[in-house]
Amino acid sequence: MKKTLTTIALALSSIAGFAQQDPQFTQYMYNKLFMNPAYAGMRQALCASYINRQQWTGFDGAPKTGDFAVDIFLPKLKGGLGLTLMHDKLGFENTMAYRLQYSFHIPLSNSTIGIGIEAGAISKRIGPTGTNSWIATTTWQNDPSIPPQLKKTTYDLGLGLWYQRQNMWFGVSSTHLAAQPVNDGTLVTLSPGPATTHNLIYNLARHYYVTGGVNFEAGSFVIRPSFLVKTDATITQFDLNVNALWNERFWFGATYRYQDAISPMIGFQLPGKDNPESGLKVGFAYDYTTSNLNNYTNGTFELFLNYCIPIVTKIRREGHGDVRIFN
To answer: Domains of the chain (ranges plus CATH)?
Structure first.
């Protein structure tokens, strides 16, 4: 069994190294800044959020991800600023990402377009460290099939476009535009232990996102279908979600991820009085795995927290003095 787990975990690390590397989130509709810098400030508020994902629980070496995001609307900058901090662990791979975002807002008659850019750093550590009980052999340092530990921090860039109006949103974006190498194939000698060389090549892959959603009012309910397409030009993943907000307080729904999972979700919000985006939101999702990995896992759990404070600005109207409004 341990050999089976080791084989699968190494395969997952290999897939992560040469295919899609960005973590996935079932509640993507509440974590838009992670995938698109143009979303910064779109809620016209100061917002902070955290999402934690425990994927494939019960599976040794399974992915564990946490993402913290904060963004603020700044009228003097004609847009918004954002910051995201992400940690992701998958098997032998540990990733830390730090990104600053700026979005320039173009107001239209009843909507807003955002043009966003992000810059930051991404740190990768690849390879086993310390004692890993899930590795099939306790003498992995002497196993030439397991690469030595590699560490590197490199810069990261991204771009995005965002369109938003009261009842709909749509965005396209790309991360890791520089496609920097974490290891370019330079031979690495394993030490301590017998001399073993590895020619491991690991490049950051560009990721592309397309996402959107609409809202429909139906009595005391608001029906909110949305979609997410993520690709690295090699592997493409589709998420479809429908959730319903009842009485502006509670929501429930589900996400379907093609050939991967069905994910029911629930949540509640305590909105502010003057801005529907302000206040507290708490969401929970559970992924029931539909692939063959269902035989090895108890599913995936995801918790989301968000709190927003509206930004109040002043508009001077000639002959009427200062009028305070929520933007």
So the answer is: 2-140+149-326 (2.40.160.40)
